[in-house]
Amino acid sequence: MCGESGIATFRDAQSGLWKDFDPKDLASPEGWTADSDLVWGWYRWRAELVRRSEPNAGHLALAQWQHRAHVDIATQNVDDLHERAGATVLSHVHGSLFEPYCSDCGTRAELDAGAADAPGESDQRVPPPECPLCGGLIRPGAVWFGESLPEAAWEAAEDAVRHADLVLVVGTSGVVYPFAGLPAIARSAGATVVEINPVETEVSDMADHRWRTTAAVGLPALVERL
C-alpha cells in the first residue's frame, strides 16, 4: 500500500530502496555493528520520505471501515500511514520507523524531530543518539534480516486471522515469512481470504478470491459497497 503514497518499494531494480545498497549493510545486526552511522542516517532518510508522503485512498478507506465495524489491521509496513489516515493498527509485525529503541537495554526512544525536516541523501552518515538510561546506541525500530519478529505483534496478528471471518491480503509480494503464511493460517481456521493486488504473488494460491487491482482503487470500492 505504501507505493501508492509515493514511497519507494525495496526490490524495484530502478527505484527500489535497495538499488544502491546491499540489504545486509543496512538491515541486519551485522550492518549495524559495522557502520551504525550509515544505518542510522539511512533510516532517518527513510523516515523523511515517509513524513513527506500522505496516506492514499486505500489507507483512508480502511480507516473509514474500521470506524463502522470491527476491522483489525496487521501490517508489514514500517511507516505510520495507517495511523495518519485515522486507523488503529493492531500489529506492526516488522516494527516501525517511528519507534526506535536502545540496542543495549531496549528502552524506547523518540525519533528526533529534525529527522523529518532535514534534507539528506540515502548514504548520509549520522551518528545515532545515546540512550539516556544506559548510554547504548539508539537503533531503528524496524525488524532486520536475521531478527525475530516482536513476539507480541506476531501473536496479535496470528490471533486476529485465526478468529476472522474475512481476511484481506493487500499489496504484499508474499515472499517474507512468517507474515506471508498468515493467509494459509486464516483459511485453515475457516476464514474467507481475498487478495487485492494488481499482479500474481506468492500467496495468490492461498486466496479464495483474487482481485487484480490496487489498494487505492479496490479498498474504497469495497468499503463503499459495504
TrEMBL record:
Any idea which positions bind Zn(2+)?
A: 102, 105, 131, 134
Query: What is the designated name of this protein?
Result: NAD-dependent protein deacylase
The residues listed in the UniProt record as binding substrate, with positions renumbered to this chain, are 43, 46
Q: Which reaction does it catalyse?
A: N(6)-succinyl-L-lysyl-[protein] + NAD(+) + H2O = 2''-O-succinyl-ADP-D-ribose + nicotinamide + L-lysyl-[protein]; N(6)-acetyl-L-lysyl-[protein] + NAD(+) + H2O = 2''-O-acetyl-ADP-D-ribose + nicotinamide + L-lysyl-[protein]
Source species of the chain:
Rhodococcoides yunnanense
| Record's subcellular location | Cytoplasm
Q: Which UniProt keywords apply?
A: Acyltransferase, Cytoplasm, Metal-binding, NAD, Transferase, Zinc
Q: Which residues form the Deacetylase sirtuin-type domain?
A: 1-226
UniProt GO MF annotations? NAD-dependent protein lysine deacetylase activity
Query: Which free-text remark accompanies the cofactor?
Result: Binds 1 zinc ion per subunit.
Q: Tell me its EC number(s), please.
A: 2.3.1.286
User: Per its UniProt record, what Pfam families does this chain match?
Assistant: SIR2 (PF02146)
Gene transcribed to yield this protein: cobB
InterPro entries with a match to the protein in the record: DHS-like_NAD/FAD-binding_dom (IPR029035), NAD-dep_sirtuin_deacylases (IPR050134), Sirtuin (IPR003000), Sirtuin_cat_small_dom_sf (IPR026591), Sirtuin_class_III (IPR027546), Ssirtuin_cat_dom (IPR026590)
Please give the cofactor(s) recorded in the UniProt entry for this protein.
Zn(2+)
Tell me where on the tree of life, at the top rank, the source sits: Bacteria
Its UniProt domain note says: 2 residues (Tyr-43 and Arg-46) present in a large hydrophobic pocket are probably involved in substrate specificity. They are important for desuccinylation activity, but dispensable for deacetylation activity.
Name the residues annotated as catalytic in the UniProt entry: 94
State the function annotated in the UniProt record.
Answer: NAD-dependent lysine deacetylase and desuccinylase that specifically removes acetyl and succinyl groups on target proteins. Modulates the activities of several proteins which are inactive in their acylated form.
Family in the record: Belongs to the sirtuin family. Class III subfamily.
Where is NAD(+) bound in this sequence?
Answer: 76-79, 171-173, 197-199, 215
